Amino acid sequence: MKSSVVLKQREARTLRREGWKKADLHVHTWNSYDVLRVPSMSPKSLLRKARRKLDFVSFTDHDNMDAYDEVNGKGLVSGVELEVLDEKRVGHTVHMNIYGLDKELFRELKAMAEDEKNIYKIIGKVKKNNLQYVYNHPFWFKDDESFNPHKMLKLAEKFPVLEYNTTMIKPVNELVLWAAKEKGKGIIANTDTHIGSMGTTHTLSQGDTFKEFFNNVKRRKSYIVPRDMNKNLMLREIMQRIDHFFNPEKDPAKDYRTGINERLDKTINFFSTTRFRKLPFVDGALRMAFKKAASRSGRFINKHLESQGRLVEDIKKKLRIEKN
């Protein structure tokens, strides 16, 4: 599926010279449960890095806004990634980014997500408060959940903008482009980075303020410069996370959760504790062993990517989308 909203890097540079603004509005800091507490992932460090390459950035940690206790200022858009499990109306977990809110309103929305579990009511409250919001990676759901693409498309009608996400393979993201076109929605491209690689995927739009920028995205008067998940990119991310695990400045007070399984989490936290920081040779050997194992993990990576490919084919059948 080709789209006129997708640009190559060379075309994007031309628009940048003409004054178009660049944004990555889905970035995780060390305040997310699946990001290790290393200096490079602090809000302050990430904001310094973002200001070298982006006009707008938002730290959208999982169900918390703690990053904004540490940073603020020009170009930083307050935001959060809210998780809502609405089994009755949608049937699976939904992630949405909400921008421009304060902590008081966030607490209200989080309580609604935990207690009422009604995504439509949450959207209504967000709209009432004139906030900007996005349906994150719309074709994503948790491994133990079932996915109904018809319910997802019905929900997409309530969002002004759908997200093209670097963590998904190209065929999945092409479905997002298709859904946005079908429903007349804006499209935004974000990295959803957990390792600090901001801006490698981004959105170009016009506007001196974030509200003007986002309104042009809503009106489909914007472009995306995307990068999709593939084997090499996934391996690079794994290697970066291994470096984070063994960073000598890692905060041992925070346990790391992958969200995959508890045994893996315990293994990672055991091998990245302070006891190994006092044994540099052991620490170095473990780091190399982890990286060597990761470099041989092609079968696991391929299996993960292939599962996304099967998902696409299943969704196309259910929605009766013709193959290209």
Protein model, in words:
It is a single chain. It contains 12 helices and 9 strands. It has helices at 9-17, 43-50, 103-115, 119-128, 149-156, 170-183, 210-218, 231-245, 262-271, 274-277, 280-295, 298-319, and strands at 21-27, 56-59, 79-86, 92-99, 132-135, 161-165, 186-190, 202-205, 223-225. The strands form 3 sheets. The chain has a 4-stranded mixed β-sheet. A 3-stranded antiparallel β-sheet has the order 3-4-5. A two-stranded parallel ribbon has the order 6-7. A hairpin with a 5-residue loop joins strand 3 and strand 4. The longest helix has 22 residues, at 298-319.
CATH homologous superfamily heading of the largest domain: Metal-dependent hydrolases
Number of separate domains: 2
Envelope shape? globular
> In which range does the helix fraction lie?
40-55%
In spatial order, strands of the major sheet run 2-1-8-9
Taking the sheet with the most strands, its summary is: 4 strands, mixed
